[in-house]
Structure formats: C-alpha cells, structure tokens
Amino acid sequence: MLFNSYNFLIFFPIVTLIYFLIPHKFRYLWLLASSYYFYMCWNAKYALILLASTVITYVSGRLIDRANNKITDEKKRTRQKKIYVALSVVINLGILFVFKYFDFAIENINRVLSALNIQILNPSFDIVLPVGISFYIFQALGYTIDVYRGNVAVEKNFLKYALFVSFFPQLLAGPIGRAKSILTQINERHDFDSQRVKDGLLLMIWGGFQKIVIADRVVVVVDTIFNNFPEYGGMYIVVGAILFAFQIYCDFSGYSMIAIGAAKVMGFELMENFNCPYFSMSVAEFWRRWHISLSSWFRDYLYIPLGGNRKGKLRKYINIMIVFLVSGLWHGAQWSYVIWGGLNGAFQIIGDRLKGVRDWLVKKLHVNRETASHKIYKIITTFILIDFTWIFFRASSATAALKMVKSIFTTYNPWILFDGSLFELGLGRKEFQFMILSIIILLIADFIKWKGHSVREWVYKQERWFRWAFYIVAILVVLVFGVWGPAFDESSFIYFQF
Q: Catalytic residue at 331?
C-alpha cells in the first residue's frame, strides 16, 4: 500500500478514527493489527520475516535482561550478554544477506571462479526482496544493542515490542526509530488534539507535494536520460544528474514527511529525517542533514564502536570509509552503490585533510567566510560533489556510471539547454516548466527553514480566512498538479527497494 495511493487515503482515516475511539489500553493492539495489515498488502507471506526478526530481537532482549538480573559474576554476565547480542546481530544480518545479498555474493564468487577456470555455481534460489527489510531489521537490531548497553529498559510486552518494529508510518522506509523514544510513546496516552492533527496533516500535504508533484514528474525525465544514456550524452547527463538529486530528495523526504505527519496525527513523534540537505556547506554537513536516522544509526552502532575519532587521524579515516562503504552496500547489492558510498567517504577525508590549506588561503586572500557569496560558493561546491556521486547511485551498474561520467567530459552539446531539446525527454514544455517552478518552491521552503523560520508557524499566525485559503490551495495543488494521470505510472518510493 503506497502513501500516494487511493487505498491509503481510505486506510489512514479509518485507522486514526478507530484509534481515538477505542480505549487507551487497546490502542496498541489496533495499531499492531493495522501495521501488519499494511505490510501484508505488499506480500502477506513476507510478514513472517518481519515477525521472525521481531521474535529474535525480543528474545535476545529478554535474555540480556535475565542475565543482568540473574548472573552475579560480572565476567560471566558480560560474556552471556555478548553471546545473546551477537546471535541477534548474526541471525538478523543473515536473514538480510539471504534475501538481499545472496545473488550478489554468488555473482561475485562466480567471477572469481571463472577467472580461475573453476566450475561456476548455479544455485536455484529465486526470491523477491521483501519491501522495507533493511529498515525494520536495523530498527530491531538497534533495540537489541541498546538493551545490551543499558540505554533502554527491556520491553516485556511482546505485542508492544512488535508494534515498535512494525509501526506502519515508518515501517517501509523509515525514519529508523529508536526504542527509547517509540516504546515510551506506545505506553503514553494520546488524546485527540486538533492542533497536533493540523500539524500532521500539513506535513503529509507537504510530503505529498514533494513526492507526487515533484518527484513523480522529475522521474520521467531522469529515467529517459539514465535508461538511454548512450543516446543522451554530455549535457543531458548533467541535467539528468541534477534532476535526480531533486527526485531522490523529494521522493525520500516526501515519504518521511508523510510518515512523520501520519504518526503525529495519532500522537507519535518520529525523528526528523531531512534538514535542508542541499544547503549544506560541506559533504560532512550534508550527511548530518540527509537521511538523519540512518546516518545517526551508523554513527552510534558502527562508527563509534569502531573507535570513532578517538584513536588518531588514520583510524578516524579508516572508520569513515568503513561506515560509508557499508552504507553503500546497505542501499543495494551492487558495486555502483559501494562506489557511491566510497566517494562520499573519500570526499569527507579529503575535505578534512585540506582544511589547513583552506584556512591558509582564506587568511592570505582575506576571505570573509560569513559573507553570502562565500556561503553560496560552498553550497554550490558541495552540491556538485554530492550530485556527482548520485550518478553512481542512479546508474544501472558501475560500468554504466563510468561511461556516463566519461560522456560528460567528451560530448559537447550545451545548446540542448536552449534549443528545446529538454522538452523532448518525456515532459512537454509546460510540464517541464512547471517541474522547474515546483523545484524552486521546494528550495524557497528549504531556504526559509535553513534560516531558522517555519512556514507552518507563519501560517498559523495569520487570520482564519487566510489559513483556510492556504490549506485548500495546498490540497488542490497536490490533487490537481500531482502526477495522477494515465500518461504516468503509479510510482513507488525509491527507498522501498532498500
């Protein structure tokens, strides 16, 4: 069930209405049943995988808790706890490997065997990747690790824990929640609050604008270029890469906004997942603003345990590269994703190594880092670096990405920006121009937020007639200008595949 589907427009109001009508003590049961129904609308049998991960991490948490309470010998207690958390991590990552990385592993083993003239493996194992598996497994593992560390109390009610793992707004593509926050909220009473509901609905409308109006329109041009890159070289690739930067942002941020808004309507607060990422002034800052729930997950559960920045510069750089290579692999079983992750890690390391040189140049050239021109320069430079990596993220393979990069520098055709060629990439002139206008609106909204202001808070301060006019116009824009027509296919969210 997609957030941008008619089914969800029926499902969500019914779930919310019943949630507020039934007694508080039964609400978590209703949300749990609704969440599993939501997931089973994709593929009912894969709910068993969701349940298996839930059971494994729940049992591991209880065993760790029992060790804390029953074993008095500290060394023995620590050893037992490490065994339980290790089993939880290994089994869950094993499930993820089988469904997401098995074919990738066999493919690469076969390449090595072929080079050594050894018989190639041909396993008969044809499976479909369960939607959202990377997200809910990481969320469940975060709980196990937090219980092991003593950062969160063990949840003894299995059904409440199952709701934490499967809560439908965030189940398929995050934000990846933390047990300390969400389990606490599951136990809280959430009464109907009109202001909170209004906040949530506005977030959902904004998310719908990003997804349905922008992303699902941009994807038409992006797919035309990237799927036929031998025909569209040079400046076409540049245009495609720039537009893909906004497609993936609006697609994923749109999902996150709808998820956060839907949860807010029912009284739950999910963590912010995007914070004006394309106004970042360094690659490191970009990753503090982009997919915040995943970035912070890798920081807390991988980067810091590896030593973080506490063991010298070299170890810090190695840890950064490990995190970003793993992040690339998390996104997909393909070498282009690994290269994408590696580039993001390398850019951060290079940026850190060049900090002294930059400081020297700033001093010698008397550059004022607080001027708007200098900040714009840094924002544009960061965007170019990030956008370059997006080519590897979007390409069908690492080979295709390298060919596209080569085409940018070997094919000279800047005139396509002015001769109308861009209007022959799946969108007509008016549709293309409206797409650009929508992206400008997005950037203006992000700029306002980046400057520390809130459009919603501003709207709330206006007269009632203006507020209602704003709400109605916002809804009509999504309904009228959203990509619903027969010329377009209903598009799922990009991050569902991860």
A: yes
